[in-house]
């Protein structure tokens, strides 16, 4: 294995950190259903990485913006300084200029006729938090009242509109995926008050013109679900039905100038990990991606085993076979299990008691490998050790 010298040079903890794999816990790895062709991890797999710690933020109230969680990337925090994260949205071929939108009372306010604005930062799939308020003084009707828009990657619009007492076409309602799908509810507060949008955005993925994943938008308004993973049909838009189109990996967040002084505050996002269709580890993977992941986990476990000794080393090598039944490791595990069973058998009964836990661990491992058809159920060392467990009464449940 080419990686091994590099891995050996690292300490065990840094080794697992470098590989992005959690160090194996002391719990038995031979437990839930084994990995299969589309799942690189066993059920309840001790090797599956722990979720990263995120310190939660605080929720916004009607009068006070909340605080973002610890890993959020803040795009507007109420200060004039954070205006520098935004710029004008220029016509093709033109350079962006500083935005003419203003910061007033902690909010980013649209200056009508100054044009759309966009973030300098570009990002793709995300959880986006954004709060907005339509002007308190009601003016206009339908699409003319408190209109703005939130354009994910500058393309798909989640509508911003004062629909408090203001009907309009449903697929252009506040919280609609504009031109694609109306919101499931109208949970708006009165104009002048801040509305809280929480959005989950997954961009469309096409390969060779074929839709791999249409992308989707989930939207909450003031805690009420408006869009439940609504599939995109392209970016959506005005008048024309849009068609599926590939999005790039990243794009800016854009806010619309629709001629109304709509205000925004507390804008932040958290990038999302890749989907399984992009080689990520969520859900069910392709057979190829699963096999690659399983090989990587097995290599990590073999590298860890190289730093162990004795029975612990044999068990870690046995564990690696669950992910990849690699020939040399397989032969080594069979040979060492055979030697181990013989050594236990040779011990006088009085000396076996101290080995009870260890023998039970080896039996559990061999039974698991048998269940997974990695070694035959009739594997001789397993039969030898099971007979010892029975003879010693270690299989009896204490009453
Ligand atoms: Mg709009």
Task: Offer a few descriptive terms.
399 residues; alpha+beta; Jelly Rolls; 2 domains; eight-stranded antiparallel sheet; five-stranded antiparallel sheet; disordered N terminus; binds magnesium ion
Q: How helical, in percent, are the residues? A: 10-25%
Q: Main β-sheet, in a few words?
A: 8 strands, antiparallel
Number of helices: 8
Overall tally of structural domains: 2
CATH architectural type of the largest domain: Sandwich
CATH class division of the largest domain? Mainly Beta
Give the DSSP E fraction (strand runs of 2 or more residues): 15-25%
User: What is the mean pLDDT?
Assistant: 90
Strands, total number: 15
Shape: elongated
Query: Which residues form runs of ≥5 with pLDDT under 50?
Result: 1-26
Structural class per helix/strand content? alpha+beta
What is the terminal separation in angstroms?
Answer: 49 Å
